[in-house]
Design a protein that fits this description.
Layout (H helix, E strand, L loop, with lengths): L1 H13 L11 H11 L4 H14 L3 H6 L2 H8 L6 H16 L8 H4 L7 H12 L8 H11 L10 H12 L5 H14 L18 H4 L16 E11 L4 E2 L2 E2 L10 E2 L2 E4 L5 H9 L7 E6 L5 E4 L3 E12 L7 E2 L10 H9 L1
Parallel strand pairs: 1-8
Antiparallel strand pairs: 1-5, 2-9, 3-4, 6-8, 7-8
Helix pairs in contact: 1-11, 2-3, 2-8, 8-11, 9-11
Family: Belongs to the Nth/MutY family.
InterPro entries: A/G_AdeGlyc_MutY, DNA_glycosylase, Endonuclease3_FeS-loop_motif, HhH-GPD_domain, HhH_base_excis_C, HhH_motif, MIG/MutY, MutY_C
Organism: Flavobacterium fontis
Length: about 350
């Protein structure tokens, strides 16, 4: 088909040199695909290289502790990906004797491996003729063919997958899939696509009908929740600092943080002091100092976190607590890690 041939020709001339494109090892491909979910290539690349250096094989990753994995993942966000990554590594190492499944349907049995990731590994590592469908693919196909199905709808994955599979070159599935994703990432971008220099312009419905900005259709909006975090850096005379692990489900599961007071709305300094006094008796508190005068706004995909840090110096030694110089050893949410590095 002319679409496929034009796309592959564009890819041969324009593809980026990326480290995971130099291998057919399913471990490397899987690792890169998990990291690239909701992450830009420039941000994911150094993490990919560091992971391979620390864990050259899937067995090495499986034998690591969760804290080691989370620490290395620190700053990449969406930490459930790291926990699933670790779980899947154990699954492959122990249930599959260190060998990744070689087919799309078997790959789907791995935790954290959905239809997109399974298709990517199956096609790139094992030449299985199965098309990938990610955000880039939705965008390219919706624009070129004028598909107005809402990509947030339950019908979209099946419809776009069927369309992509009709276009797939069965002799070159790896090249086709990478070409389609690369084209969406570099040429047919969400904003300001390079339509006037596009090799597919000749038959693009969106370009012809001036609907480039309207496609793909996505009507579902994510509700944004505001949360107010007040972190307490509690330090005793021995310079030990109190840490806690986020064990509840939700953001930053199993990462470390300073003791937290969370409120649904902003609170006054007087109200915060009352809350602190309900946790630590006033007689053991030497001083309370507000560390950041300006609230830190940390945006997640569905939450806005308004964060402030307070230093609480105690006049009594704590039984718990870690030496200040040991903080670097713990996996933190990146906003806390950056605060530690700064202050």
């Amino acid at each position: 088909m002319e679409f496929t041939n034009s796309l592959l020709l564009w890819y041969l001339e324009n593809q980026r040199e990326l480290p995971w494109r130099q291998t057919r090892d399913p471990y490397c491909i899987w690792l890169s695909e998990i990291m690239l979910q909701q992450t830009r290539v420039a941000q994911a690349t150094p993490y990919y290289l560091r992971f391979l250096e620390a864990f050259p094989t899937v067995v090495d990753l499986a034998e690591a502790t969760e804290e080691q994995v989370l620490k290395l993942w620190q700053g990449l966000g969406y930490y459930s990906r790291a926990r699933n990554l670790h779980h899947t590594a154990k699954q492959v190492a122990f249930d599959y004797q260190g060998q990744f499944p070689t087919t799309y349907h078997e790959l789907l049995k791995l935790k954290g491996v959905g239809t997109y990731t399974a298709a990517a590994i199956a096609s790139i590592a094992f030449d299985e003729a199965v098309a990938v469908v990610d955000g880039n693919v939705y965008r390219v196909l919706a624009r070129f063919f004028g598909v107005e199905t809402d990509i947030a709808s339950s019908a979209a994955p099946k419809e776009f997958s069927a369309l992509a599979n009709t276009l797939l070159d069965p002799k070159r599935p790896a090249q086709f899939n990478q070409a389609l994703m690369e084209f969406g990432a570099m040429q047919c971008t969400p904003k300001n696509p390079q339509c006037h220099q596009c090799p597919l312009q000749w038959s693009c419905v969106a370009y012809r009908d001036q609907k480039v900005a309207e496609l793909p259709v996505k009507t579902k909006k994510t509700k944004i929740t505001d949360r107010y975090f007040h972190y307490l850096i509690v330090e005793d005379p021995q310079r030990k600092i109190l840490l806690e692990k986020r064990t509840e489900k939700g953001i930053w599961h199993n990462l470390y943080q300073f003791p937290l007071i969370e409120t649904p709305t902003p609170i006054t300094w007087a109200d915060l002091q009352q809350k602190i006094a309900s946790i630590w008796p006033r007689e053991i508190i030497k001083s309370i100092v507000e560390m950041n005068k300006t609230t830190i706004l940390h945006k997640l995909s569905h939450q806005n976190l308004y964060i402030r840090f307070y230093k609480i110096s105690l006049n009594k030694e704590m039984e718990a607590g870690v030496p200040r110089e040991s903080l670097e050893d713990y996996p933190f949410p990146i906003v806390i890690y950056n605060f530690i590095k700064t202050y």
